[in-house]
Design a protein that fits this description.
It contains 17 helices and 21 strands. The protein has 532 residues and is α+β, with helices and mostly antiparallel strands.
Length: 532
C-alpha cells in the first residue's frame, strides 16, 4: 500500500469530489453511546471509491466504510472472518470456497456471492482503470487476460455457487491469497448504487457501505466523518459514536494539535525531525518494526536515466546509514534491498555505498566528475522529513559525484498525479506491505503494475513473479522471489532503496483499548473503544 506520506491520483476523481461533497448524508446520525475518535489522517483523501484509491490516507477511511470476505486481525495482521464466516481450499490448493454470512448494505440490500463476483469483475475491468486491479488479476485464474482486455468476464475464475457460497479459482496454490484479500482491491462494492448514480455514488447523500461505519459528511480540506452502520453484522462490537478524519499534512501542526488534546490518534508515521527527541520520550509514543520500504523511483523513460551506469552511480553515492543515523533518527534501518526481511525470506544484497565505484560508473557513462551531467529534478510530497531527506540526497550527489539536483515539493494529489503519469525524473516513493509476503513489494515493479511509476519493464522479471505465484509455500518459492529482487534491484538498479520503516504513532493506550502496534500499521475500528 502506498503510504502517505507514501500511494496515486486519478484526476477524474478530483473533479467528482468538488463542492458537491460539502453536503451531509441524509438521515445519518451518530449513535447516542460511545466516544468520538479524532484522527489526524495526513492529507485530503483522493476518493472513497475503492477503485480509485491507493494510500494510507484512503485505507484508514476505507476500513471504516467497507468489509470484504476477510478482515485484518489487529495483532497479527492475518486474515480473519469478515463477510465470509468460513472458507476452505481444494485438495490441490487452487480453489477457495467461501461461505458468506447473510449481511446487507447500509440501505438493507443483501450482499451475496454474486455481489462479490460483480464487484471484482467491475474492479478489474479495463474501463474502470483501478490502480490496484493488478492485485486480484495476478492471483485469480483468467483475470489477467480479462484485465488486459484480451478475454471476457466468463473466463475469470469466479463463481457464485449459490447466494452465500463463492468459489474463487486461483492461478496456482498462491499461499498468501486469503491474507491478500484483506486489501481493498478485494472490497465488495454496492453495484446497485453505482448503477443508479454512476460516479456520484460516493456523495454522502448517495453512499452505502457494508463496513462498521457509514459516511456522514465530507467537507473537502476540512474533515471526513463516519458514524456507526446499524446494518453491520458485527455492530455489537462497534463502540465509537463517530470517527473524524482530519486532513493535516503539516507534521508540526498535527503534533501540536495532538499535544493540545485536539486529536486522539496522530497517524503521521514521521514526526517533525527537530521534535523527534521530545516525541520519543512520550509514554504515548508507539514505535514498532514496520513491513515498509522508503525508496526513490527512477523514470526509466528519461534519456539520462535509461543508462544503468548512471542509475548505479546515483545509488552507490548515497550513504543511507548516515541518513538514518543523522537525518531521520527514528530507528529506521538502512538498506540496499527493496523487500524487508520477513519469515522465510532473505532480501537481496543490494548495492553498497562506494563513492569510488560510483564516480567510475558516472565517468564510464560520459560524465567524468559530473561534467556535462544534466540537472535533474527530484520530487517529493509536502513533509518536513521528505524535504530533509531530499536535501540530504541532493548534498550527497553534489559532494560525491559533482552533480546538481533540483528539488521540488508538491501537494499530495499533484504529486501522485505526476508519478502516475510518469511525468518526473526522480520521485520519492514508499510502500507499506498489504500482506506479509515478498510478492506484495515485488509486484510493484511488474511491467503491468498500476504502481510501477518508473515503468520498469523486464519480461524475465515478470516471468519470475508469475512462476512464484503458481508455486506452493516454501524455500523454493522464496528463492525465486529473491532472484527477482536481485534482478530488479542489484542488476538493473530500477529503484534507489533507502531504508526500512518503523511505525510511529501517537495514541494514548491508557485511554483507548483495541488498538495494537503491528508490522503493517493496520488498525481495524471494530473492537476499538475508550477505556472506562
Amino acid at each position: 500500500m502506498e503510504a502517505y506520506s507514501m500511494k496515486k491520483l486519478f484526476l477524474t476523481a478530483a473533479v467528482i469530489l468538488s463542492a458537491a461533497l460539502l453536503v451531509t448524508g441524509c438521515g445519518k446520525k451518530a449513535a447516542s453511546k460511545g466516544t468520538e475518535m479524532i484522527i489526524e489522517n495526513g492529507a485530503e483523501p483522493q476518493s472513497i471509491d475503492p477503485t480509485q484509491i491507493q494510500g494510507n490516507v484512503e485505507q484508514r477511511i476505507n476500513a471504516a466504510l467497507f468489509e470484504g470476505l476477510v478482515t485484518t486481525d489487529p495483532k497479527t495482521c492475518e486474515a480473519v472472518p469478515g463477510v465470509a464466516e468460513s472458507w476452505e481450499r481444494s485438495a490441490d490448493d487452487t480453489v477457495l470456497t467461501f461461505h458468506l454470512r447473510k449481511t446487507t448494505w447500509s440501505d438493507g440490500t443483501p450482499v451475496t456471492a454474486q455481489t462479490f463476483v460483480d464487484s471484482w469483475l467491475y474492479f478489474m475491468a479495463p474501463s474502470t482503470a483501478a490502480v490496484y486491479a493488478y492485485m486480484p488479476a495476478m492471483v485469480i485464474k483468467g483475470a489477467a487476460d480479462y484485465n488486459a482486455g484480451k478475454a471476457d468476464a466468463s473466463t475469470v475464475g469466479l463463481r457464485a455457487v449459490d447466494d452465500y457460497t463463492l468459489e474463487v479459482t486461483l492461478v496456482g496454490p498462491v499461499p498468501y491469497a486469503v491474507d491478500m484479500m484483506t486489501h481493498y482491491s478485494f472490497d465488495v462494492l454496492p453495484m446497485h448504487t453505482i448503477k443508479k448514480f454512476g460516479k456520484d455514488w460516493i456523495k454522502p447523500e448517495n453512499f452505502v457501505g457494508n463496513g462498521p461505519f457509514i459516511l456522514e459528511s465530507w467537507v473537502p480540506q476540512e474533515k471526513v466523518t463516519v458514524v456507526p452502520n446499524e446494518k453491520y453484522w458485527n455492530k455489537q462490537n462497534v463502540f465509537l459514536s463517530r470517527i473524524t478524519f482530519l486532513p493535516i499534512d503539516d507534521m508540526t501542526t498535527a503534533y501540536n494539535k495532538y499535544k493540545n488534546g485536539e486529536i486522539d490518534w496522530n497517524t503521521t508515521n514521521t514526526f517533525p525531525l527537530d521534535m523527534l527527541d521530545e516525541v520519543k520520550l512520550r509514554d504515548d509514543y508507539q514505535v514498532y518494526p514496520n513491513l515498509a520500504s522508503y525508496y526513490l523511483a527512477f523514470n526509466l523513460n528519461n534519456k539520462t536515466l535509461k543508462d544503468v551506469r548512471v542509475r548505479k552511480a546515483l545509488i552507490e553515492s548515497l550513504d543511507t546509514k548516515e541518513l538514518v543515523e543523522k537525518v531521520t533518527k527514528g530507528g529506521q534501518i538502512a538498506t540496499g534491498a527493496f523487500v524487508p526481511e520477513m519469515a522465510g525470506y532473505t532480501p537481496a544484497d543490494g548495492m553498497k555505498f562506494d563513492v569510488a565505484e560510483a564516480k567510475k560508473l558516472l565517468a564510464d557513462a560520459g560524465y567524468p566528475d559530473g561534467k556535462g551531467f544534466p540537472k535533474l529534478t527530484y520530487i517529493y510530497n509536502t513533509s518536513d522529513s521528505h524535504k530533509k531527506i531530499a536535501e540530504w540526497a541532493q548534498q550527497q550527489w553534489k559532494t560525491n559525484l559533482g552533480i546538481d539536483m533540483d528539488l521540488q515539493n508538491m501537494e499530495w494529489a499533484t504529486f501522485l498525479a505526476k508519478r502516475q503519469a510518469n511525468d518526473f525524473e526522480i520521485a520519492r516513493e514508499g510502500w507499506i506491505g498489504d500482506y506479509q509476503d515478498p510478492s506484495n513489494f515485488l509486484e510493484l515493479l511488474k511491467s503491468d503494475s498500476g504502481n510501477n511509476d518508473g515503468r520498469y519493464n523486464n519480461p524475465d522479471y515478470d516471468a519470475l513473479l508469475e512462476k512464484a505465484s503458481k508455486m506452493p509455500a516454501g524455500a523454493e518459492r522464496m528463492q525465486v522471489l529473491r532472484d527477482a529482487e536481485t534482478m530488479a534491484v542489484d542488476r538493473d538498479a530500477s529503484i534507489i532503496p533507502m531504508y526500512i520503516y518503523v511505525t510511529q504513532n501517537l495514541i494514548d493506550l491508557n485511554k483507548w483499548e483495541g488498538w495494537y502496534s503491528n508490522t503493517l500499521d493496520l488498525h481495524p475500528y471494530t473492537g476499538l473503544k475508550a477505556k472506562k
